[in-house]
């Protein structure tokens, strides 16, 4: 959809499209505009500390954790399906990961792939039921929202002997060579070096205020880039748009719609597993409330990012910016004098504006009148 | 009516070997007999019209020809050899392309993405194997220009095209991917006058490239404007095939409706049907 290669022989009867109208057709435009607006709002109303390096990292961290889910959710939405169970999936994958590490005593190199495999399997169950039954994914995954949350509670009590928390993961993973890829800060050396030169803020004793970039932010950026590449530059991406746009038309044209959709459910579940692994290692414990209501937040971020609820349209970059808006608002309000509970009002308002905006954009793209 | 047509009609050679021959096809769904002995064939470079009223079995017949349904009885010969298509994919690979009424197009996607949907050109290999967008765009623009449609750009959404243009994209796509037989399911039924004539012109272009066109319609005028042979389907049976010039629009109309009743009706409507 971004394919704008210049044409060797243009038709003289067709006027060149102005840049603005071409930009209006990009699904992520709304989210980018939203980021700018929200940033301006906080630049005016919030404490200036919000836009220092440490402030930015402060709001990017929750944005990244949500964003990893939102990118998965966005791809699934473009493919025409929903997954309401991703929040519960975070808790469930966290439980599985906790059991791998704590009960079975597996090293991360085994525990992490195993957690991904297990999550992909659960995602596949979701997908296969939706595809086989032809029921709306909304209702099937709503069932799994409760099933997985309940299983997480029961499983945690079993694994921890009665508690809904499983502690001690940090001690078990601290010295694992794989842990730095999934927890803590990246590039501490770079930040220390910058601090020495006085290029970043430091505490009195000379250590930088920001010791590195939290790894989830890097995962978030990498995932957004990979998802965008897949969507726009691979045949599979075309199949995802096609499957979501009209699954009958797509399968009549030879697109393996079922495989595409089931794989998307698996990818979404794996995104949940990634968030689970990162947060469990970081916090050193897993508990049953992890990921609570994240499914809604992820879907909201995807919608703010330009995804249509009906599928077939949207972008991963949009979900990326949608999540950043989310992080900015959640954390930004603490830098202002506003009551923090305004956050929910803001979120609902953003969602409503985004849906109205997307609807208008869709009509523009399809030339509907 | 048949003489003033602006199209140069296909020169069907008397002994041209048919690409697809369907002999005495029957199709039953439980106790319903949808097709009760249909014979039909299509030669390269001709436009064979299949006419029939609603419920005559046209859809079942196309679906049998394109591999969606397997016939209960009867024989399908493809280039002289008996063949049975298990899936639509099989018939597509053999060279039978079907353009259904829904066109298998996605309005939100660009023309070029629709054109190559499910058959994307790629470059690179292994992990760098990717959708060759530039090539897809180039081919789309060229193919569409051949059909007489100038797109604003390959990234123009299909939703912004008119019904006739969409039909043309679907036809161009089928021909580009090597269709030997093109089945068009009521391509003109939802179109205005101008768009209809565009689509009929497209059919003519495709025919002149040696593709056999099966044109399904219930509109006798549209069929006569472009068809070389006409077969009428009524209540699941073929009522015979006529060559161009051998049959009048009135006769065709009568056959489609099963004769009698329409003749009376037509009388009362003073020949406006």
CATH C-level category of chain A: Mainly Alpha
Assigned CATH superfamily of chain B: P-loop containing nucleotide triphosphate hydrolases
Report the CATH architecture of chain A.
Answer: Orthogonal Bundle
Q: How many runs of DSSP E, i.e. beta strands of chain B?
A: 12
| First and last CA, distance of chain B | 15 Å
Task: Give the SSE order of chain B as H and E letters.
Answer: EEEHEEHEHEEHHEHEHEEHH
Helix content of chain A: 55-70%
Please tell me the total number of domains of chain A: 1
Tell the overall outline of chain B: globular
Determine Rg of chain B (CA atoms, Å).
Answer: 19 Å
- Total number of helical segments of chain A? 16
Please name the two chains that share the biggest interface, counting residues whose Cβ lies under 8 Å from a Cβ on the partner chain.
A-B, 37 and 39 residues
Q: Which of globular, elongated, flat, extended, rod-shaped describes the shape of chain A?
A: globular
Work out the strand percent of chain A. under 5%
Oligomer: heterodimer
Helix/strand-derived class of chain B?
alpha/beta
Largest sheet report of chain B? 6 strands, mixed
Tally of helical runs of chain B: 9
Kindly describe this structure.
Chain A is an all-alpha fold and 369 residues long. Helix content of chain A is 68%, strand content 3%. In chain A, the strands form two sheets. A two-stranded antiparallel sheet of chain A has the order 1-4. In chain A, strands 2-3 form a two-stranded antiparallel ribbon. The model of chain B is unreliable at 1-5 (pLDDT under 50). In chain B, the strands form three sheets. Chain B has a six-stranded mixed beta sheet, with helices on both faces. In chain B, strands 2-1-4-5 form a four-stranded antiparallel beta sheet, with helices on one face. Chain B has helices at 58-65, 88-94, 111-115, 133-146, 163-176, 193-208, 220-226, 249-257, 260-269; strands spanning 20-29, 32-42, 47-52, 73-78, 81-82, 96-99, 122-123, 130-131, 181-185, 212-217, 229-234, 237-243. In chain B, 33% of the residues lie in helices and 25% in strands. With 273 residues, chain B is an alpha/beta fold. Chain A: Its main location: membrane. Chain A: It is a multi-pass membrane protein. Chain A: This is Xylose transport system permease protein XylH.
């Amino acid at each position: 959809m971004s394919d704008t290669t210049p044409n060797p022989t243009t038709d003289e009867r067709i006027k060149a499209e102005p840049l603005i109208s071409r930009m209006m057709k990009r699904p992520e435009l709304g989210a980018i505009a939203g980021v700018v607006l929200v940033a301006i709002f906080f630049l005016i109303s919030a404490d200036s500390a919000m836009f220092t390096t440490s402030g930015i990292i402060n709001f990017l961290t929750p944005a990244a954790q949500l964003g990893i889910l939102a990118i998965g959710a966005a791809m699934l939405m473009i493919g025409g399906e929903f997954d309401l169970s991703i929040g519960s999936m975070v808790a469930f994958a966290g439980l599985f990961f906790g059991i791998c590490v704590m009960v079975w005593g597996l090293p991360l190199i085994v525990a992490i792939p195993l957690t991904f495999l297990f999550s992909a399997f659960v995602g596949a169950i979701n997908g296969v039921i939706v595809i086989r039954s032809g029921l709306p994914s909304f209702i099937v995954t709503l069932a799994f929202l409760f099933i997985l949350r309940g299983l997480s509670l029961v499983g945690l009590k079993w694994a921890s002997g009665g508690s809904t928390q499983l502690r001690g993961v940090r001690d078990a993973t601290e010295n694992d060579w794989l842990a730095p890829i999934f927890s803590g800060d990246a590039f501490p050396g770079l930040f220390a070096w910058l601090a020495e030169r006085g290029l970043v803020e430091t505490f009195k004793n000379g250590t930088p205020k920001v010791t590195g970039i939290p790894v989830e932010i890097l995962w978030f950026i990498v995932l957004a880039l990979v998802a965008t590449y897949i969507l726009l530059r691979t045949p599979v991406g075309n199949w995802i748009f096609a499957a979501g746009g009209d699954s009958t038309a797509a399968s009549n044209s030879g697109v393996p719609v079922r495989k595409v959709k089931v794989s998307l459910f698996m990818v979404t579940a794996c995104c949940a597993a990634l968030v689970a692994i990162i947060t469990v290692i970081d916090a050193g414990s897993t508990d049953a409330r992890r990921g609570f209501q994240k499914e809604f937040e992820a879907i909201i971020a995807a919608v703010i990012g330009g995804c249509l609820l009906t599928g077939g349209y949207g972008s991963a970059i949009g979900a990326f910016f949608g999540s950043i808006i989310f992080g900015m608002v959640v954390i930004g309000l603490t830098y202002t004098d506003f009551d923090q509970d305004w956050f929910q009002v803001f979120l609902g308002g953003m969602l409503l504006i985004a849906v109205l905006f997307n609807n208008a954009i869709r009509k523009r793209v399809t030339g509907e009148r | 009516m048949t003489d003033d047509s602006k199209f140069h009609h296909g020169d069907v050679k008397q002994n041209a070997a048919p690409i697809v021959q369907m002999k005495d096809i029957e199709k039953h769904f439980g106790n319903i007999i949808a097709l009760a002995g249909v014979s039909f064939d299509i030669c390269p470079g001709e436009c064979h019209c299949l006419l029939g009223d609603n419920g005559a079995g046209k859809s079942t017949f196309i679906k049998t020809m394109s591999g969606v349904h397997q016939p209960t009885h009867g024989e399908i010969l493809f280039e002289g050899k008996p063949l049975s298509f298990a899936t639509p994919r099989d018939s597509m690979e053999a060279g039978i392309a079907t353009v259904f009424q829904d066109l298998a197009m996605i309005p939100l996607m660009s023309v070029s993405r629709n054109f190559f949907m499910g058959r994307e050109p790629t470059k690179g290999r292994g992990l760098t194997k990717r959708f060759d967008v530039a090539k897809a765009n180039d081919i789309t623009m060229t193919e569409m220009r051949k059909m007489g449609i100038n797109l604003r750009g390959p990234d123009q959404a299909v939703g912004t095209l008119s019904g006739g243009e969409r039909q043309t994209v679907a036809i161009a796509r089928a021909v580009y991917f090597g269709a030997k037989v093109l089945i068009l399911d009521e391509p003109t039924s939802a179109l205005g006058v101008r768009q209809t004539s565009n689509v009929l012109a497209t059919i003519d272009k495709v025919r002149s490239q040696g593709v056999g066109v099966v044109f399904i319609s219930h509109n006798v005028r549209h069929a006569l404007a472009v068809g070389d042979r006409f077969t009428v389907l009524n209540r699941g049976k073929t009522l015979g095939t006529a060559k161009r010039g051998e049959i009048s629009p009135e006769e065709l109309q009568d056959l489609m409706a099963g004769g009698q009743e329409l003749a009376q009706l037509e009388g009362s409507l003073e020949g406006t049907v």
